[in-house]
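quick one
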Amino acid sequence: MKRFLFSFAFILISTFLMGQNAKIEQKITKLLDQMTLEEKVGQMTQYSSFFDVTGPAPSGGDNKNKYDQIKTGQVGSMLNVRGAKQVREMQKLAVENTRLGIPLIFGYDVIHGHKTIAPIPLAESASWDMEAIQRSAEVAAIEAAAEGLNWTFAPMVDISRDARWGRVMEGAGEDPFLGSKIAKARVQGFQGDDLSATNTIAACTKHFAAYGFAESGKDYNTADIGTSTLYNIVLPPFKAAVDAGCRTFMNSFNELNGIPATADTYLQRDLLKGEWGFDGFIVSDWGSMIEMVAHGHAEDGKHAAELSANAGSDMDMESHVYVKHLKNLVESGKVDIAHVDDAVRRILRVKFELGLFDDPYKYCDEAREKELLYNAAHTEAVLDMAKKSIVLLKNEKNILPLAKSGQKIALIGDLADDKNSPLGNWRLASDNNTAVSVLEGMESMSKNTITHETGVQLYSGDAFFHQHININTTEANGIGKAVEAASQADVVVMVLGEHGFQSGEGRSRANIGLPGMQEELLKMVYAANPNMVLVLMNGRPLAIPWAAENVPAIVEGWQLGSQSGNAIASVLYGDYNPSGKLPMTFPRDVNQVPIYYNYKNTGRPGPKNEVFWSHYSDQTNAPLYPFGYGLSYTTFEYSEPKVTTMGRTADVTVTITNTGKVAGTEIAQLYIRDKVASVTRPVKELKGFEKVVLEAGASKTITFKLTEQELGFYNNQGKYIVEAGQFDVMVGTSSADTKKVSFSIK
Ligand code: GLC
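structure w/ alpha-D-glucopyranose:
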């Protein structure tokens, strides 16, 4: 009976939704039939904000053009306008002045929180906690929607293996399986179940595609990769986002194998809109259309518009080439009107789904804005997310957790009392100095005597999203006072790492050690008092071999957002037992980059007692900390895994025991290796993980299910295949610490 009722309900809901969709399509068709070509091109044009909409109209220049074009129906979307009042004023320009009153859609980079800032996405990914990640995106959507926004340019799902690239902070690390789960969680968090609700926003999966494979980790650089890497590493998180119902995509600045993504017909039309059935719309990245002239792919702006429109780029973000050339390109037959109609249909579809045609001002409620921004429940959510994102890298002599009283603490580092850097790079809507610092967090949670010394300044001058940071590489006057404080203390807590604007867009680094004078400070303070805990605050994996070798305790504290200091203090004092696992390999040396866990075995694996194998003569192949690595204040033991196969599926069972003295959470990981395949497979691939909470002494048996979905791969024709043969299965606490069993399928 239950099954019948469930099926009946499913059929009812599906029928209702199909009916709703049919109604929207009818409305779109009716509107399209009324629209002039100029108005259609207008929907495909997006501008960035240009003035305080509650103030006077801009006079002259580009901003005056944008203002006038909004009023004459030549603009479909704005970005970087926020605030219920501001958005309402901007929306009125379109709705009350244009012939058809088509509402604008307002986009913004709501990447990891909006006013209440969550940990940077790379940090959230270290939690491996899909519920917490989804909740984090929900909170971001609630606050963004309260400020009048209905569309975010997130999640960024670019897989990367290169810590030199500044945008690793924005993604989910190096693995496509983990990255796909996180892409789904973020899309569902932003969009919820009802896109027309005033607490959800349309997501935008980006950057399509392969932006994370920019050569040498240099932002915007060429990406040239083989089909196996494209299909098996780069594309899966994008496909997961489509399957999760993501309503928009953003293409990328880079060229992929010689073709700028904005003009890549295969990626955008054949694969995304064709094979994957994506029915939302694609926005170009900022200026990426006109940048095809610099790429050497387009003659000029008009040619860029032609290439982009024919390749399936539906909306032009700030290249101004559609508004200038697309009408003429259609009239001269260079762009088929069907491409324009398809693009406009997709854009209008999302606007209808957002409810903007029912009420263009539904997101512009100042009372709701006042009630929801910085809401207490949001603070709680980002604190929970931050705690789960912290990774314990080392804890010898059990220095951690610290006592809450009776200890003299020397807290050293410029970042220790920094209330901005923990907000990370993509903190556009946040307010200054709104992060809880480590100093504040520690003081609020203990009765210890805490002496803070900066030691060395990390940077001088101002720090803004769009300008270089002047890192201090010469001035070390404060080291003496830091050394003095350390010599008087029972325990030293160092907070070192990167400023929030040392990672992110345009922020690639050729060296990935501790910036500036921090390493020198670390060594001199350590010499004074080796009883030390190092807290890292960074937006990328750092190569810190000296610290890893010498400092007894190391905590990866990332950039954890508004509640950074409280989360870090909770871990330092043991209120929260750290459970994070690295989503990206930490190199020992930048010269090992790109370095990642799912590498190929090559024909000359090692180590061997000779020179003729794949290695360096002056550096080990091993990373500093491997993918999936993270310690706890307790210990866990794994039984030998057991496997039972049924046809082309396998159940893998393992028992995990908490062998320590305190409760803890373990993220058990399952990797496979397809031993022989028509396209070589990596030495291991993550295909399952499970968070297990265990009291001291308790055990839990878990079973991973492997199906063709996990056992197959994409061949060089982009076809998903599963081949008979032997598989190794490895289960354990990190990619480098597992127990193995094998099985075969026919
Ligand atoms: C930027 C970024 C993109 C962002 C867009 C709008 O250049 O590449 O991720 O969403 O422009 O700010």
